[in-house]
Amino acid sequence: MSKNIIADLDLWLVSIGAGVCMAFAYDLLRLFRRLVRHGRFAVDLEDLIYWIVCFFASFTILYYGNNGVIRFVAVLGASMGMLFYSVSIGKIFVKFSYFLINKTIGSALRFLCKIIRELHKIACSVNRRNREFLKKVGIFNKIQKISRFRLTHRLFHHRININRGKNGERGKSHEKKDTRIQTR
Q: How far is CA 14 from CA 20, 51, 62, 84, 115, in A?
């Protein structure tokens, strides 16, 4: 075989490998998005960074493999690599990885949160004298702070006092309704 055919074959195989790596990297990004929830701006920024990294990786492959000349062989190889990955391993990778992480780490975190909630209930249910002792020791405030911890969002409670009379006029009644509004 001639050197040009071997060079084209090498470029084609490297392009297929690069396509597989790019598809796998995007699946890792998708898995990260499932585990850590974030807003639309962060998703757009992650996609932008991903495509910039893919562009530089493709440019590097073309530069060293073919002296910077864009060839259909390289584009076809990357496309075939991405397609091969998404048809074979890519179909189950994100689902299986998320399931595995959710069952191992997620179960441990849920169990830990359950223990912390129970400790918080115990700390809140103790009588005043014991509560003062726990406050002096410093355990009571730590348990309250830990039990309010949320993994995916924060929950704010706002108290609104509404003083309304029988006809809906303000200030006529001495009864106070205490309502809570939850915002995220």
A: 10, 19, 10, 14, 51
- Nearest CA-CA partner of 57 in 83, 81, 90, 86: 81
Give the span between the Cα atoms of 73 and 16, in whole angstroms.
10
Query: Chain-centre distance of CA 163, in angstroms?
Result: 43
Closest C-alpha among 82, 79, 100 to residue 31: 100
Evaluate whether 65 touches 14 at the Cβ level (below 8 Å): yes
pLDDT digits (tens, 9 = 90+) for 95-107: 888 888 888 887 8
Residue 23: pLDDT above 90?
A: yes
Is residue 154 within 8 Å of residue 184, measured between CB atoms?
Answer: yes
pLDDT tens string 26-47: 999 988 888 788 888 989 999 9
H or E element, residue 181: strand 177-183
